[in-house]
Amino acid sequence: MPNLQTDSKTRSATLVGSHRITAETATEEVRHLVFRTGDSSFQAVVGACIRILAPGQFGAKHHARLYSILDVVPNKDDATEFAICVRRCHYLDEFNGERYNGVASNHLCDLRAGEAVQFVGPVSYPFAVPDDKNTNLLMIGMGTGIAPFRGLVRQIYEKIGGWKGKVRLFFGAKSGLELLYMNNENSDLALYYDQPTFKAFQAVSPRPALDAPIALDQAIEQNAAEVWEMMQSPNTHVFVAGTAAMWPTVEKALEKIAGSRDAWNMARQKLADADLWTEVLY
């Protein structure tokens, strides 16, 4: 696992391209943004995070938000291109009920090619590929939580190769149209289905028009035996990413698989104590 230290230097990158990866008819707008920086000291690594410094509000110079790097392409002229995944966010003011645009996400989604952003990083490396190719990887993500895992899976099978441990990916969205990187135009995860160690399980809401919860818990429960077997193994690393709102539903499914809340808490603590549990919820 790479030892990537936090870098506090402020850098600049120019937008090369911005592509919407959810359908125009989907309620969620998620964009794949590619940036280019000529700063040769920037250690761009798939899975690491950068802190985007969007223009601030109410007298603040910057509005900072973390994003995972999902792809890196070094160039011959010492420049580096890197990609992030951004969901256009909105929030409701609890006091007056007004709906406001998320500052950083809307700034990024509205950027045009050639415009620049400031950023700091890398600031952490939450989803590093283990050194041992026999390690099992259990990944659970929702919405933009799929971004670091897409990059991680690609790194395992394209750049490292010969992965022998099980790789299981559970991910979902409100509707099939919102399954990032798995629609007709962005089916890159499907490229790895012929890998003997890789399986991915999609989960969508059974009633997306009614805002029914994503059926990620059902997908996990349907594969309960394998999920629990992997979690009991001392050779399994668990990665969790996505919105914090998804976690209670997923955790309830894991408690059911474990047999009780206490059994699940013990299993999770055992993974955490062994440095085999990594989560990024937002």
Please indicate the count of domains: 2
Q: What order do the helices and strands follow?
A: EEEEEEEHEEHEEHHEHHE
Strand content: 25-35%
Mean pLDDT reading: 83
- Architecture of the largest domain in CATH? 3-Layer(aba) Sandwich
Distance between the termini: 24 Å
Please explain how this structure is put together.
It is a single chain. With 282 residues, the chain is of the alpha/beta class. The chain has 2 domains: 115 residues, Elongation Factor Tu (Ef-tu), domain 3; 146 residues, Nucleotide-binding domain of ferredoxin-NADP reductase (FNR) module (Rossmann fold, 3-Layer(aba) Sandwich). Helix content is 22%, strand content 34%. The protein contains 6 helices and 13 strands. The protein has a 6-stranded antiparallel beta barrel. Strands 11-10-9-12-13 form a 5-stranded parallel β-sheet, with helices on both faces. It has a two-stranded antiparallel ribbon with strand order 6-7. Helix 3 packs parallel to helix 5 and helix 5 crosses helix 6. About 3% of the residues have low confidence.
Structure in a nutshell:
The chain is α/β, with parallel strands linked by helices.
